[in-house]
Amino acid sequence: MFEVLVFVYENYWRGDACPELHQLERKLSAHGFEPDEIHDALVWLDGLNVAAQNICLPAEPEPEWAPEQSATSMRVFSVSEQDRLGAACLGFISFLEGSGVLPPALREIVVDRAMAAGIDGEMPLDALKIIVLMVYWRFGHEPDALILDELCDDTEDRLAH
Fold this sequence. Notes:
Layout: H1 2-11, H2 21-30, H3 35-52, H4 79-98, H5 104-115, H6 125-138, H7 145-152
């Protein structure tokens, strides 16, 4: 499914530039993706569209995309969310929030779509990064260069200095 999502992200500039799901299904099939992968990705994309229907973001991304959260509020992840996301993914979500690039409304969509990804066990960090990219893509927001580098760069071979 994630290969299909990456293909969609790379070939359609924004979520609103993507064709309707039935047309997209034909295009994905023509590109050689397996029917099961296409079906899973389309169901996931439909869920992303449904989740995004009630969110209205301004044209320019700012730290305050959604109604303000109290400075003393804190998101508590359920046991199933903790089990699915694991420490690496939860830490990455926290990093994005702390950087001011993932407001609470988008965080909830990321968590919802991560839970709907159909992955058994703990989600790999690379899969979560694809989900974050797809959420940004759906809203037509391109993250700044440093965040995009974190989302697209393979951190396995990185040396800390």
